[in-house]
Amino acid sequence: MNILIWNEYRHEIENEEVRKVYPEGIHKAIASFLEEHHVETATLDEAHHGLSDENLNKTDVLIWWGHKAHDEVQDEICEKIKSHVLEGMGLIVLHSGHFSKIFKSLMGTTCNLKWREADEKERLWVVDPTHPITEGLNSYIELDKEEMYGEHFDIPTPDETIFISWFEGGEVFRSGVTFKRGKGKIFYFRPGHESYPTYYNKEIQRVIKNGVQWAKRNHAPTHDYGNVKPLEDISEK
Amino acid sequence: MNILIWNEYRHEIENEEVRKVYPEGIHKAIASFLEEHHVETATLDEAHHGLSDENLNKTDVLIWWGHKAHDEVQDEICEKIKSHVLEGMGLIVLHSGHFSKIFKSLMGTTCNLKWREADEKERLWVVDPTHPITEGLNSYIELDKEEMYGEHFDIPTPDETIFISWFEGGEVFRSGVTFKRGKGKIFYFRPGHESYPTYYNKEIQRVIKNGVQWAKRNHAPTHDYGNVKPLEDISEK
Amino acid sequence: MNILIWNEYRHEIENEEVRKVYPEGIHKAIASFLEEHHVETATLDEAHHGLSDENLNKTDVLIWWGHKAHDEVQDEICEKIKSHVLEGMGLIVLHSGHFSKIFKSLMGTTCNLKWREADEKERLWVVDPTHPITEGLNSYIELDKEEMYGEHFDIPTPDETIFISWFEGGEVFRSGVTFKRGKGKIFYFRPGHESYPTYYNKEIQRVIKNGVQWAKRNHAPTHDYGNVKPLEDISEK
Amino acid sequence: MNILIWNEYRHEIENEEVRKVYPEGIHKAIASFLEEHHVETATLDEAHHGLSDENLNKTDVLIWWGHKAHDEVQDEICEKIKSHVLEGMGLIVLHSGHFSKIFKSLMGTTCNLKWREADEKERLWVVDPTHPITEGLNSYIELDKEEMYGEHFDIPTPDETIFISWFEGGEVFRSGVTFKRGKGKIFYFRPGHESYPTYYNKEIQRVIKNGVQWAKRNHAPTHDYGNVKPLEDISEK
């Protein structure tokens, strides 16, 4: 499978604390545990954000991490990604990617939520234990410190709700949710604030690996849309 | 309730056959059976397509009919309508409105389908018989002649599927489907090609009346989103 | 509306601590805030558990609280209740009623869950803020002390997920969920362990009041099932 | 994979017309195209209906065809099958199996529908074109003659709606629907009246083959249910 990992890649460059956690960037940390696939990475400040048509055409699953520069993603490139998703490319949106242009345009809502940075314990409870994305997990994943995201999360009713998070400070969040849009499968997965070593956690890695398998590009033939002939000539009857 | 009926209003002006069916426009035909509400109408060729903020602010349900000039609806006005829907205004999208900018931007998909103009009989079967939108109906609604719309209909999985249509020529279609987006409720209802007297049908009128009641503006308080304090001071523990 | 509140009514009789909280039984405590309706109550140890056909025929919504004597509910009476639900009677299942025969037979699953009695704080977060059952609520309901129920909750995917609970000890739970079965609407609502004064909480009362409105008996005509004639004589074609 | 095909096997014995279509029984016709798996068959009139615990324990997917003798399936055996489904065994229910005890007990509804035997053309339209069950299909499957099943179909809202049928005589039907119950996956697939050669159709075979792959036994660990300890000792706080 061809995986393309896109990272905004600003925090790691501008903030020493973040760089200590992800010295080569979040994209490289994610790439390191997906090596059974052919993995490429792309970042915001590359030409065309590193997202050429050639690149996207061969991508089976695009993984997206962005946070503070969503607005700098060009509208035309967002439109292009959206077309690829609707044509069958899988999309995994991580953490603060909930506010990315691509996710919001596929959801049709504000994707708003509550948040707090307070080094809180998070427990991601599995609520769909037979879903392929939860394969190999126990009842929950525990992260010692993470940013909190809380309900209400303004998304359409998910096709499937897979994880619900508990946070030390008193909130809950639908942390793993899936959506079909066109021929593409979308998995939103909450954890992964830039200042915590979340993507080194083996269970989080397992979920992303499972997610990649689940979301893989769909090669179903495109339906014939538009003006069609009848089953039999109605006028003959 | 304040209902605003928006109509493209081009077919009726440009095509004599259509004008015979809807001499004052489809919007006026729909307005005539919603008179228990305060009803206003707006059309594409009015200034700002007849859709001022003042107008939308007081609208409980917006009904939308458009067909051949979707592209002429200005993007900023479409964005404005979307904001109002997400803030609680109900939206009923009729027939060829499936391809309108507002519907596509709320769905996130192409909203593509099959179609055929062949004067076919249509039967709309009720598959959710206890839904408020089907109140007062029998097992199905029959329309002697309509344009055919056929699956696959490229929309997200609906929150609720209420009607499934049968067409004489051999196709089926999810003809009545609902979606929640933000605080707004959306009802897509298939029938109503401009050349047929569909909106004079008493059962079709009943569905639209029921739909207006179901979709009425939601006045739920907007959730507090953004940065929040914890339930109790975590640092004290 | 005619509301029938069914209570096992054993804890309150056998346990002094519980009797202090609900001196006249949980059923009477619930009845006291539904007085705008015509309310009757029934308990396990009455003849036929207080559930005659006459009684059920006129009931718009049945509220069910049971805990330690689920097995003593007679199978035939459970079957009768189920028929009434499928014919349109609303059903609100409270707390430990998740293990009642009636709920399990409508769900088709074990309805298993985790639990703990440890005087924990519970926060019920609203995840469907425009649902009629949440009308009048803020972002969450807080209960100072409750029994914990935790995921995984072995139910079918709910039609709607309205509340998700956070518990002090580290768990989450889908606390408010709805299901349609036949013509009946079912609302499962988690809180209400017998040793806590939960049903005196004004917001919990509000949810149950809203639930009663939402679940009210459906008078939609029963569909004609069975052997039917074709739309037109096929053989003539 | 171990597949167990259960057939009532009465029509084929009692009715010469049916026997001409399926000389060795519907179960043998289905077995013949699943030969890449280890396939066993069982029928109503065998001891314990051919369904021992030993048999079910090793079964990955159970396929069920029954029609006129649903009542003769013993309740205890139905309960046993249900337990196996909830523990992860896949279940494919065919055609008139909608009225089987096992399907009704997993659904919790009457599973009622309309029907007509009139040699009608059926078209099964794919409405979820990227679902694994539709892999390899075109836009629809056409059957020249089948029994008609029509809406309303009294089932819970399906987790996924995959096929919708069109019938010559004027009806529609949700012909392919899926449900999760416990750890088991259930696929209901409509076609297959005993008097038509439906199970020799290559596309119908393809759907059943795909369905078997999709429904295969889930080996996810069973969640720990019941009384649990807290995340941390609450009393220490």
UniProtKB/TrEMBL annotation, chains A, B, C, D:
Cited InterPro entries: Class_I_gatase-like (IPR029062), ThuA-like (IPR029010), Trehalose_catabolism_ThuA_prok (IPR009381)
Entry coiled-coil feature ranges: none
Limits of the ThuA-like domain: 2-215
Protein name: ThuA domain-containing protein
Pfam families: ThuA
Lineage: Bacteria, Bacillati, Bacillota, Bacilli, Bacillales
Domain of life: Bacteria
SUPFAM superfamilies referenced in this protein's UniProt entry, alphabetically: Class I glutamine amidotransferase-like (SSF52317)
